[in-house]
Prior knowledge:
The chain is globular, with a radius of gyration of 19 Å. By secondary structure, the protein is mainly alpha-helical. 78% of the residues lie in helices and 0% in strands. The chain has helices at residues 10-34, 38-60, 69-90, 98-122, 127-152, 157-172, 184-201, 207-234, 236-240. Belongs to the CDP-alcohol phosphatidyltransferase class-I family. Keywords: Membrane, Transferase, Transmembrane, Transmembrane helix. One of its GO terms (molecular function) is phosphotransferase activity, for other substituted phosphate groups.
Amino acid sequence: MALNNPYNTTPLRNETAVGAAAQLLLLVLLGTAIDLGPAGWLTGLAFAVVTWAVLTRALSRSWLASFGAANRVTLARATLVGGVTALVADSFESPTPVTALVALTAVALILDAVDGQVARRTGTSSSLGARFDMEVDAVLILVLSIYVATSLGPWVLLIGAMRYLFVATARVLPWLNGRLPPSTARKTVAALQGVLLLVVGADVLPYPLAFGAALLALTLLSWSFARDIRWLWRTRDSRTG
Length: 241
């Protein structure tokens, strides 16, 4: 028999509702400031609905007694990522408001360094919080890679797609689902992806340097994934034995 979550999940659902409301408010502000088009509105609204639905379901299955300060920071970051997603979608129909795109992305990247510290200092680290943080990171990198690909070429999409390709491959090769040891190198490479894509997307570099920065991001990410895959392969027997 499945165990039910003994905690009252109403406060947790309220947190996700506040997050969805914040996303709608940000879209209204963007729509007022830069005249966000239909593509931006629809994409932003879809992002808000999907985030609310997925997070609400995950919380209902968790054993969290409260949402926690760290998850609130991550939720704020998700709201900013939703704004970036709307701007990127809108860029296919109208000129990109680069200043707004850079500002939202920069704050989201800064907050990425905050939520983990908040979780450690408040003793509220959780597997759900770590997964939430990782998924927000992945979406931001995917969206930025889509934006940068419009100027540098489709190969940049590999940066945003690599993590999802890894997850899809792990469904076929279960040994890829093993728990990886903590790695400063992995965290550094992950953080650099957003920074390098932001710099390229800000359109402040000449084409050769922008191309080189994106290529560096892809090279570092490929090395990091290859390193982890190699470790998972070498330890597969000890984890399944």
